[in-house]
Each structure stands twice: as C-alpha cells, then as structure tokens.
Amino acid sequence: MEMKISNCFTTQKWCGGAPFSRQVNVRFYPLPSQRLQPASGKIRQRRNLSLQNKKQQTKKINIECPPDVDLQSSDDVDSNTEKMSKQSLSSSNQEISIEEKVATLTETKSSDEISYLSVDSNEEGQPSSVHLQDLIVMIRNAEKNIHQINEARVHVLEELQKVLGEKEGLHEEIKILEMKLAETDAVLRVAAQEKIHVKLLEDQLEKLKNELTSSRGSEENVLHVNNSVPLSHSDTVNSLSEELDSLRKENILLKKDLQAMKSELSLVKETDEHILMLEKERSVLESSLSELESKLAASQEDVSELSALKLECKNLYEKVEHLQMLLAKATKQADQAITVLQQNQELLKKVDRLEESLEEASIYKLSSEKLQQYNEQMQQKIKLLDERLQRSDEEIQSYVQLYQDSVKEFQDTLDNLKKETKKKPLDEPVNDMPWEFWSRLLLMIEGWSMEKKISKDDAKLLRELVWKRDGRICDAYMSCKEKNDHEILAAFLRFTSSPTRTAYHPYCSRDGACCKGGLGDVVAGLGKALQKKGHLVEIVLPKYDCMQYESIKDMKVLDVVVESYFDGRLYKNNIWTGTVEGLPVYFIEPQHPGKFFCRGQLYGEHDDFKRFSFFSRVALELLLQAEKRPDIIHCHEWQTAFVAPLYWEIYVPKGLDSARICFTCHNFEYQGTAPASELTSCGLDAYHLNRPDRMQDNSANDRINPVKGAIVFSNIVTTVSPTYAQEVRSAQGGKGLHATINSHSKKFAGILNGIDTDAWNPTSDNFLKVQYSASDIDGKIENKEALRRLLGLSSSDFRRPLVGCITRLVPQKGVHLIRHAIYRTLELGGQFVLLGSSPVPHIQREFEDIGNHFQNHKHARLVLKYDEALSHLIYAASDMLIVPSIFEPCGLTQMIAMRYGSIPIARKTGGLNDSVFDIDDDSIPIQFRNGFTFVTADEQGFNNALERAFNYYMNNTETWKELVQKDMSIDFSWDSSASQYEELYEKAVLRARAASRS
Predict the structure, then answer these.
(1) Helices 229-366 and 98-111: crossing angle, nearest 10°?
(2) Which of 340, 359, 430, 918 is the most buried (most CB within 10 A)?
C-alpha cells in the first residue's frame, strides 16, 4: 500500500512507506545548531560558482513518474536545489564551531554510502518500474548528499580563511610583544648599571660615616658633617632605592607578560597544527567530492536513458490498470461460473438419479411376469412364517412373564435402596470450593491412574465424583489432606462402588495456553468459561523453560514415562501436572537430544515444524496410554494442527476414536509450511498426504501445509471473528487457503473471542491507583493524573485528552498510522502514550528515535517494552485508545479498552468490525454505537476518526460521559462465545454418535 510522507520537522524527517509496500530505509541527518562567522569574498565567489555548476547539472535531469507513484518531479528537484543553494549562500550569516561541522561532515560521509542500481528490463526491453523508482530515489539522495558536502566544504573554507586571518593578527601581536620585550631588556640593562652605581655610592657613604666617627673633634664639625654632606647622599640613596623597587615591579610584570606571550605562542602552534589537519581533511573531502561528482555524472547518463523510457512506463501503467480492471471482471465472472458449475453438478447428480430410477422402472416392467411367480412363492412363505410367528408368540409370553417377575424383584430392591439412602445425607454438590481445588483432585486421580496405582474403572468413577463436586469426596480429602498419598488413596477407593454416569467433556490440546499473550488468554478464557458450564476441560502444553512458573500451582512430575515415535525410534517423555487459573494442565517434557522446548522462547526456531509435530504426537500418545476418552480435542494455530491428521491416520486405528477434532486458526498469515519430506518424522505418510485434497500447500507442490491439513481433517474449523471468517474466504485474506476454506465451508465458522473479565476488571484491578466502575467513573481522572506523574507528562490541564496505544509494533498493526497518530494528537492539543515493542529491528530503531525525540516532551511518551502493570494503568487513564490495524482477526485491546472506559478508535476490519461501531453511523442502532471507526488504512481516514473523537470529547462533555458508561457496561466476557463453541461441540458429538449407531 502506498504511503506518503506524514510529518516534517526542523531536526528530523520521518517518512512513511514507499510505493508498492516496499520498505525504505531512511537516514536522518542532523542540521547545524550554531551559525558560522562571515567568510571572505573570494570563498563566497568560489562557493557561488560551485553551486551554480551544481544547479546547472541538476536542471539537466528531467524525471517523470507515473501518476500513482508518490515521487517529486524534476521541477521539485530544481526547486530543492535552488533552495539549498540559497541556504548555502546565506550560511555566511550563520555561526557554528568548526569542530561540530567537521563532525557532522564526517558522520555524513561515513554513514551514508550511495549505491546505484542499474535499470533492469524484461524480455521485451521494458523497464522494471520498481528499479526505476529505486534509481530515482537514489539520484535524489545522491544530489542531497552532494549539496550537503558542498555546503560543509564551503563552511570549512570560510573557517580556514577566518583562522588564517586570526593567525596574521597573532603574528602582528607577537611582533609588538617582541618589541616591548627588547625595550624591557634595555631598561633592565640600565637598571643593572644604576644598581651598580648605587652600590658604589653606598660604599662611599660607609667610608664617610667611618671617617666622621673617627674625627669627632668638635660639635660644630659634627653638625657640619651631619647637616651638610650626609643629607645629600641619603636623599640620593633613597631616590635610587625607590627607582630600583619600581624597576623590580616592572620586571615582574614583564615576566608575567612574557609567560602570557609564551602561552599564546603555544596556542598559535596548536592552531597551525589544527589548520594543517583541516587542510588534509579538505583535500580528502575534495577527493570524495570528485568521486561523488563522477558517480553523479554516471547516474545522470542513466537518467538520460530513462527520459526515453518514461512514455513507455506510462503506457505500461495504463495497461496494468486496464488489466487489473479486466482481472477484476474476470474474477467476478469466474465466481459466477463456479456457482453455476456447482448448480450444474447438482443438477447432473439429480439427472443421474432419475436415469437410474428410469432404468430400474424399465427393468421392473420387463420382469412383471417373474414378479407374479415370485409373489405366489412369497405367499406360501408367508403362511409358513405365520405358523412360526404363533409359536414365537407363545415363547414371548413365557419370557414376558419372567421379565415381569424380574421387574418386581428389581422394584423391591430399588425400594430397599431408597430406604437406605434416606437414612444417609444427600450427596449435594459443594459449590463453595474454588475450581482450582477440584482440578487438583482431578490431576491427583489422573496421576494415580497413569502410575497404575488404581484401575482405569476406579479412576473413571472417582473422576466423575470429583467433576460432580460430590461432598463426600471433598470431606474425605479434607479429613486426610495432611496424610500421605496412600491413605488418601485408600479413603477415595471407598467411593468406587457407587454407580456413576459418563460426563461429556471437551479436551483442549494447546501449545501455549498458560504463557502470557493474547493466544494464551484466549485458550485459558475459553477453558474457564466451558468449565463453569459444567464441562471437564483439560489442557496439554509443552514444558517450556521460559514459562511463568509462578502462575502454575501444585506442579509436580508423575512417576510415569510416555514413549512416542519420532524419526524412526521411540523417545521418552516426562509428564508434569499443575493448575493454571483453576484449569488442570498436563506439561510434556521430551527427553529428546534436540531439547525442543528449552530454547528460551516459544516460537521462531529453525526447527519449529519438528518441535510441534513431535509435541502433537506425544499429546495423542498421552491420551491413548492414559485411556482417556475425550469428546472433543480442540487444537489452536498451526503448531497443533498436526493433531488432526495424526488422530485419523494413526490413533483412531489404535482405539482412540471417541473424539471429534475442532481446529481454531487465530491468524491465517502463519501456516507453518515445510518440505513434504519433514512430515515423515512424526510417522505420517508424506506420499499419501502430499495431495491437493489433503495437506499439499496450494502454492507449492513439494511443501506440506499444516493449517490446510487441519482444515481438511477436522470436524469443526473456526476462526476468531465473523468478519475475519468472511475475509479469509477471499484470495487476499485467505493467504492462499481461500479455496480450501470455501470447499469446507459447511464446517467453518467465525466466533468472536471474549476477554477474561476477572483479570480485566476496573472495580478490582490492583494495578490501578483508584478502582472505579461504570456508575462512578471519577476514578479515571485520578488514574489519569497518576499516569501523568509516573511518565513525567504535564498535568496543567486535566481536561486535555489522553490518547493511548498498546500494541506490538508490526506492520499488521498499522505502524505508519501509529507513528502519524503521535504527531496528529499533539497538533490537536492532546497527549499520547505508547506501550509496545517490535520484533522487527528497523521498526524498533525507528520508534526508539521517535522516543528519544519526545524524551523530555510535556505531552508525549513512548515506552518501548512489555509492562503488564503499566498496560492496566494506561487502559484506565486513557480517554481514547487507537487500534489502526491493517488486518485484525479478532483483537482484544479494543474490548479491554471499553471495559475500562477508554473509547476505541479502530479500523473496520476483522474482529474490530464486529466489536466497534461508529457513534455517527445511522445504520447501526444507537444502543450499539460505542466508538469511532474508519475504513481506509491511510492518514486521511484516521484523521477523520481522531478529529471527530476530539470534537466529541471537547464539546460534548455529557455525551462523552454517557458513552464511557455505556462502553463499560458492554459484556465482552467469554460466556457468549463459550455457548457458541458448546453448541458446535454438541452437534459434532451427536453426529458422531448417530454415525456409530448406523
């Protein structure tokens, strides 16, 4: 399906899928966050010339695409080129650090390698439209990369010019500092000379002082010496000392300046080195640019060839459209022809019957005389028979008398039994014990039976007492539950003499029911619903090493080993028992060297076909060796589809013939096909079954299709919604099995799944901040605030609508619409929360990038993992929940959302079409309208539904509140679905019993 670019941002561009559903890897280039300083005029001229040359080159490319392909025309390329040229010319006003630009350029060069594809042609020389589109996209990407490289190159040149100018300024400053240094040296030399002169004066002063002290002749002379000569010398000394101090201080300052100059010189040296590195990188960039230019020239030559082929492409597309219309008409005519052919076949059968009857009538006419003779003989025989009949009547009268006597004796015995039973307490069923208690007793009895501790008949009687929830066996267990198994067994065996009846019990054989996930929820939910209706439901599973063992209670291994055939020999298997949500479960642990179920995951292994065909045979071997007589064996998905052919081909001849097979396919996209030779491992005859009417894949004669085999060999075939049951009958929805489904349509039905209303209940959900109900929905507001605080979203406006999405991020779920919903919700003034992850690496990386972009956003948050507690809180806190699936066999999220008062916005497909009805659809009774829907899986259709939901929420408060309360009151439990399955089971069992009587 063609997808268009949905959103563009200043920092990143998120692009949708390419035409013809091709996955396009989009690389994201970070734009500069700072601006560059202006460069010199020469570099600007050089840049303008290079950009003009590039512009002339790009204008030569004239690409025209078919109208249904979403690509830019050559005018768009020219306009983009001019825009990029203007941006690069105006980049002189930008400021950016050279380190950042070089890093960006290096990243672009290292991460984006441009690959070119040649234009393929078919046998008639016509171009391949897919390769043509790839080449156009490739050329556009190459031009963008070249423009980015040119822009980065110009910026680098501008930075180099700037650095060179700074270098010249630094050289001038160095010259000035050197001159100052020379002057300082001269001053220092003068100061040194003056210092020497001061020392000489000080020596002379000392000599004068000594002479004065020695010649103290008279007071006048002393006064003369003290008042005239020494004073003049002292003034000189003081002035010299002060000048010396000032010179010392100046010397210190000069030393500091000198050190600063040295540090600046070191920086200059580093700048020189950096300039050299930049020049080297510039040379590398120039070489890479020349290579890119040569590649672009080569691609332009290819494009020139494309211009001659564009008209042929248009004609081809027109022819394809015409052929598609003819094909559609042909398919309609073929369908009509098929119906007419079927009617003709029925008419031919009727004609054949009439011809046979006419032939018989003609024969009867010819043999009328013989019939008369035959009648005479018959009359004689009738007389003889009448005589014998009289004799037999007399014998019968004697037998009737004996029978009446025996009835009288039986009535007397019955009266005595009634008198004895009146003395005993009534065996009323115990209803106050949980289902888990009775399942535990049932598994205990099954274990004794398989371990040969009790007989099969005793096990059958005890099983009936347990399933009727007999109070006597409950009291017996409670009185001796602290004792050992031998004493409990002895207590139970006292009840084996009482008469019992055979119970009708469906038997579910499944490969993942107690593991978390939608499929496990379905099997467990259906099992519990059937259990509440009084049926014995048992589940068989592989003993995976990655199961949540904390949810399994009373798990233990039985003292018994079941051997099964595989790959020409017998393998032993340990049998474990336990209860899951009150259901009895058997776990099979193969002793196979391949360690089939110790892989750390349920599915996705290279030998899944062998793993699950092995498990299917062991499950049937368990039923055979335990002498179980189930009425229904219910298998789910392709992993247990092998049970159907194994049952009829191998185990019915061995005596396991009481059951009818029910197969449920939850998603026809997964069929588990494999080479036909691999079917022999589990003991089936590949030559016998690899036929078009049995297990041969409809698209490959040498491959086996387990799902097709289950459809052919099962008595009941179901899928998970009525709409999906209709969709899979078409070529698009059936994934190759539509013909097989249509040929077995009488036993095919669609039953909508339910949800476990005990696990998903807002009135008792412990994961919520506040529990609430349909009559009091104020708790949704408190849970909304709790989710905002938990995820760091803004709580300034409590009326701001919160849109939730809980899903696996796979193409089936409408990934492109989920991505679009994030941005559209924010544009409409809402908040968005996504919980989910993807097994597809490129989808996971894409949403990780989106999550990082919104990491600190006030109104959007992406949690890319599985978190059960958070899922419950999102359901309760969301005002709306989106389910934009491309196809959806059933879907449970929309039902859970309505259970918690979150209004669904869903696409009309599969189970979504059977559970969500648009509030504005006048063709739907108003009491059933519960959400917002759209038909086409594109952004326009989704926008319409989302905007209508926002309008109702913002402008019709009371209507929205009534809608929330109505959705929370809808019954999506398993009760209705289980009743439909029960009806199918009973019809299949009754048909089997009728066939056995005849």
Answers:
(1) 30
(2) 918
Closest CA to 575 of 677, 450, 665, 691: 450
Give me the amino acid identity at 428.
E
Q: What is the pLDDT of residue 491?
A: 62
At which residue do the structure tokens 């080195």 appear?
Answer: 273
CA dist., res. 719 & res. 707, Å (int): 12
Does an H or E element contain 301, and which?
helix 229-366
* Nearest Cα residue to 757 out of 930, 914, 554, 978: 978
Helix/strand/coil for 542: strand
DSSP code string of 847-864: HHHHHHHTTT-SSEEEE-
Tokens 């077995």, residue located:
744
- Residue pair 194/200 in contact (Cβ under 8 Å)? The answer is no
Beta bridge partners, 153, equal: none
User: Are 558 and 575 contacting, i.e. CB atoms less than 8 angstroms apart?
Assistant: yes
Q: What is the pLDDT of residues 648-664, one digit of tens each?
A: 999 999 999 889 999 99
- Within 13 Å, how many C-alpha atoms sit on residue 11's CB side? 7
DSSP 8-state symbol, 649: I
DSSP 905: E
Alpha carbons 686 and 691: distance in angstroms, whole number: 9
pLDDT in the model for residue 26: 36
User: Contacts from 674-677 at CB under 8 Å and sequence distance 24+?
Assistant: 674/609, 674/703, 674/704, 675/702, 675/703, 675/704, 676/702, 676/703, 676/704
* Terminal Cα-to-Cα distance of the chain (whole angstroms): 55
Tokens for 426, please give them: 């009534």
Handedness of CA 160, 162, 168, 173 (dihedral sign): negative
Contact 663, 708 (CB under 8 A): no
Residue 814 Ramachandran class (φ > 0 left, ψ -120 to 50 alpha, else beta): left
CB atoms within 10 A of CB 12: 16
Q: How far apart are CA 399 and CA 383, in angstroms?
A: 25
Q: What is the pLDDT of residue 111?
A: 42
Asked whether 222 and 216 are in contact (CB, 8 A), the reply is yes
Burial degree of 387 (CB within 10 A; 0-12, 13-18, 19+): exposed
Q: Which of 52, 57, 34, 267 is nearest to 155 (CA)?
A: 34
* Distance between CA atoms of residues 790 and 779, nearest Å: 16
Q: How far, in Å, CA of 440 to CA of 105, rounded?
A: 68
Please report which helix (H) or strand (E) contains residue 689, including its range: helix 686-689
Its pTM surpasses 0.85: no
At which residue do the structure tokens 């396991």 appear?
Answer: 656
* 588 beta partners: 542, 575
| Residue 907: φ, ψ to 5° | -85, 145
548 contacts: CB under 8 Å, gap ≥ 6: 514, 515, 516
Residue 299's CB is within 10 A of a number of other CB atoms, namely: 19
Rounded to 5 degrees, what angle do the CA atoms 727, 729, 733 make? 50
Does the pLDDT of residue 220 top 60, yes or no?
Answer: no
Per-state percent for the chain, helix, strand, coil, to nearest 5: 60, 10, 30
Number of residues assigned to the chain: 998
What are the tens digits of pLDDT across the range 236-281?
656 667 767 777 777 788 777 777 777 777 777 777 777 778 778 7
- Helix (H/G/I), strand (E/B), else coil: 58: helix
DSSP code of residue 32: P
Q: Who contacts 44 (Cβ-Cβ below 8 Å, separation ≥6)?
A: 89, 92
Residue 577 CB-half CA count within 13 A: 21
Taking only Cα atoms into account, the Rg of the chain, rounded to an integer number of angstroms, comes to 46
Residue that the structure tokens 């924010």 belong to: 826
Beta-carbon contacts of residue 914 (< 8 Å; ≥ 6 apart): 721, 722, 723, 752
